[in-house]
Amino acid sequence: MKVRIPTPLRAYTNQQKVVEGEGATVSEVLDDLDRRFPGIRFRMVDEQNRLRQHMNVWIGQDPVTDLAAPVTAADEITIMQALSGG
Q: Which of 11-25 are b and which e, b meaning 16 or more Cβ less than 10 Å from the residue's Cβ?
């Protein structure tokens, strides 16, 4: 499946905007990405296996709140990193 990578995380993917991922759940896809792009998962998921506060993930147009959410090879995952400032 296609996984869209936000600009701040592209240093892990050799500047690729879209990469391929495999897995039956969002968590498995993130694990797959981490095998190919070491360190990327830690930037998205905390030590309690929850999405970090500043990370947003969608399957198609549906927001993900549970990393156990199922995915299929036909799905497209979009990862976005919230930016803040003042």
A: ebbeeeeebebebee
